[in-house]
Design brief:
The complex is a heterodimer of chains A (517) and B (174).
Chain A lengths: L1 H32 L2 H35 L4 H33 L14 H32 L14 H53 L15 H139 L1 H124 L9 H8 L1
Chain B lengths: L19 E5 L5 E4 L1 H7 L3 H4 L14 H12 L4 E8 L5 E12 L5 E9 L3 H20 L4 H19 L3 H7 L1
Antiparallel strand pairs in B: 1-2, 1-5, 3-4, 4-5
The chains are: A mainly alpha (517), B alpha+beta (174).
Chain lengths: 517, 174
């Protein structure tokens, strides 16, 4: 009991000293790992060290006092006991001195100190072994702890304090230190991660700025195909906005290019048609002059027409009179013819009488011949006269017949003449009527000519107005030509300005190659 | 110390709460061992102190591993290493050693400290044994000690290169 107790006291003392050392070591390493755990362990160890050391020293004193009383029973026993006691005391004293010296070295930080060459046996040896064990434990712990922290200083975190064989406070302190190392590792990893993230972000930013400034440079050079692509995730919004703006710009410019092209085309067309218009206006003016001249000629011929119509009218009136006179002549002729007919009838009557006389004479001459023939020769002279008379009568009858035939012929011819005269009269009437129609027509012509003259006057007025308008048109057309030329020039300038921009990516290498080739 | 310990196939083990601790001076001579070390290696303290650390070296552990260990320590850095050690009787025991240089007040390396834990048996069986046997086989191909070490060391580095990790990363990934 005693021995066990005394051994226990030594342990207390030694443990107190070593724990104190451990505490100071922990306190020393605290700044290395910047951890509350180490500081906590150090403070706790210091406190424990003080308590256990006091405890142990008090116990030692008590037990030495008790040992003296227990062994003084008999004298011999007392003598033996005294010699044993002195030997034991000497042994104790020596061991105590060794332990004390060793502990002092430990307290001074000499962790190499051990109790070596232990000659004692039994409890005194055990005590020393235990002291060694304790120092070993503390030594090992300090070595482990400082090696682990040293590794931390070199950013090596896998070097944990191995917990194998560590118990109680050692294990707690080792665990705390390992936790502190873990924490440090995490912080270090986090710091490294942050630093890397910072570096990455900076690199990314640099990359983005490069891309962006490259795109802006191309944009400044008129290249609108400088869309951004493959931007880092954090800059996708920038990419989208920039590309959107480019897109709108491209659309606008494309529309402008199209409009400029159309305007240029339209301006050229306007220019061409303005010139065309100008030419035609001039032609029109020339045509108008000719028309004006022609109108004057027409006007003169219309006037001449009117005069001719007048004359024709007068001539027609004369012709009518002549026709009327002709009709009267024809009537007189008919009367004369009728009188000739009547005379012919009377001549025919006379000729009948003459014929009758001739027939009578013939008969008488015949009778005279008959009577002359009865008178024979005497009558012979008579008979010749009778025959003569008879021949004359016959010749008279024949002449009368001839006249009769002539008269008859004459009558027929008179009838024909009357007929003809009548027909002439009718024809003359028709002529008169025709002349009247002609006169009317001529009058109409005269009226129409007058109307024409008035119309020509109006046409002339219209021509004058047209001439004025044409003059104005001509000057406007010339202005148009000038304006169209100006427009053409401006639209060409606009096209040139817009052509500065490259809106679409070239579809093949050919145009670019050609541009540089 | 005349030594011709024959390795046995017996395994000695210790509790997972225990640390086998030793300290050496700058030349690798043992200056301190703890009780557990003595018990498991079956040596009394007196037989260990003053001896080179190779006293517990097992022939199954490739020399390349020690080269790596000492190269690392020489740079003033800690080293973790799985080791198959051998006790006085030839029995073997696997440890997972955390070896650290000790520094004087002037900041110079004044010795080394090794703190050995009971390794995870699964890691040893699944990863370490196979790697060590391959390296060991390579080392045995060479008669010349230097060449043997160089070949084993190159193989070890190539194995790490194939995994694209540093040695420490590899150890801590297990």
């Amino acid at each position: 009991m005693t021995n066990l107790s005394s051994r226990s006291d030594f342990r207390w003392v030694a443990t107190g000293g070593i724990v104190a050392v451990a505490a100071s070591v922990l306190a020393a390493v605290t700044p290395f790992i910047g951890s509350d755990a180490a500081a906590y362990a150090a403070a706790a160890a210091s406190a424990v060290a003080g308590v256990v050391t006091l405890n142990g020293l008090a116990g030692c004193r008590r037990r030495f006092a008790a040992t003296g009383i227990d062994h003084a029973t008999t004298l011999r026993e007392q003598a033996d006991a005294a010699s044993r006691e002195s030997a034991v005391r000497a042994e104790y004293a020596m061991v105590m001195a060794r332990i004390s010296a060793t502990c002092q070295k430990i307290c001074d930080g000499d962790f190499e100190a051990r109790l070596t060459s232990i000659t004692q046996t039994g409890e005194l040896a055990d005590v020393q072994y235990k002291v060694n064990d304790m120092i070993d434990r503390c030594d090992a712990f300090v070595r482990e702890a400082s090696a682990s922290l040293d590794a931390v200083c070199r950013n090596i975190y896998y070097r944990r304090i191995l917990l194998g064989g560590l118990q109680g406070g050692f294990r707690v302190a080792a665990t705390r230190i390992n936790e502190a190392v873990d924490g440090q590792q995490k912080r270090d990893a986090e710091r490294a991660r942050l630093a890397k993230a910072q570096v990455d972000a900076t690199a990314e930013q640099g990359h983005v700025i490069d891309q962006f400034s490259g795109a802006l440079r191309r944009l400044a050079g008129g290249d609108l195909t400088c869309s951004l692509a493959d931007m880092p995730e954090n800059y996708l919004l920038l990419q989208r906005e920039f590309n959107g703006a480019l897109d709108r710009l491209r659309k606008t410019l494309r529309a402008t290019v199209g409009a400029a092209r159309e305007v240029t085309g339209a301006a050229a067309e306007i220019s061409a048609s303005a010139m065309d218009l100008s030419e035609r206006t001039e032609q029109q003016a020339a045509g108008l002059e000719q028309t004006s001249a022609s109108m004057e000629e027409i006007s003169a011929s219309v006037k001449k027409n009117a005069k001719s119509a007048d004359r024709a009218d007068r001539l027609a009136a004369g012709a009518r009179e002549a026709a009327d006179h002709g009709a009267a002549v024809v009537a007189s002729t008919v009367e004369a013819m009728q009188r000739i007919e009547e005379s012919s009838k009377r001549i025919a009557d006379i000729i009948g009488i003459i014929d009758e006389i001739a027939r009578q004479t013939n008969l008488l001459a015949l009778n005279a011949a008959v009577e002359a023939a009865r008178a024979g020769d005497a009558g012979r002279g008579f008979s010749v006269v009778a025959t003569e008379v008879r021949s004359l009568a016959q010749r008279s009858s024949q002449a009368a017949n001839g006249i009769k035939n002539l008269i008859n012929n004459s009558s027929t011819q008179v009838k024909d003449g009357v007929e003809l005269a009548n027909r002439t009269g009718l024809a003359l009437d028709e002529i008169a009527a025709s002349i009247k129609s002609v006169a009317n027509i001529v009058a109409d012509i005269a009226i129409a000519s007058n109307e024409q003259a008035i119309a020509i006057e109006q046409v002339n007025k219209a021509l004058v107005q047209m001439d004025e308008v044409t003059q104005r048109n001509s000057s406007l057309a010339e202005e148009n030509v000038a304006t169209a030329k100006k427009l053409e020039g401006q639209s060409a300038a606009l096209s040139e300005q817009v052509a500065f921009f490259q809106i679409d990516r070239p579809t093949s290498f050919a145009p670019r190659a050609m541009r540089f080739g | 110390m005349s030594r011709s310990i024959k390795p046995t196939n017996r395994e000695v083990t210790f509790e997972d709460r225990e640390f086998l601790v030793s300290k050496t001076d700058i030349k690798g001579r043992i200056t301190y061992v703890n009780q557990a070390f003595c018990r498991v290696s079956d040596y009394p303290e007196a037989e260990l102190v003053g001896q080179p650390h190779s006293i517990v070296r097992h022939p199954d552990t490739p020399r390349a591993v020690f080269k790596l260990l000492w190269d690392t320590l020489g740079k003033g850095r800690e080293a973790f290493v799985y080791l198959k050690n051998m006790s006085r009787t030839g029995d073997f025991y696997w440890v997972f050693a955390h070896v650290t240089p000790s520094f004087s007040n002037e900041g110079k390396i004044c010795g080394f400290h090794s703190n050995r834990r009971l390794p995870d048996r699964r890691i040893v069986e699944r990863e370490i044994q196979s790697i060590y046997s391959v390296i060991l086989e390579e080392e045995k191909k060479h008669r010349n000690g230097q060449e043997s070490l160089a070949a084993g060391y190159e193989l070890l580095n190539n194995l790490l290169l194939a995994k694209n990790v540093s040695y420490d990363e590899f150890i801590f990934s297990l």
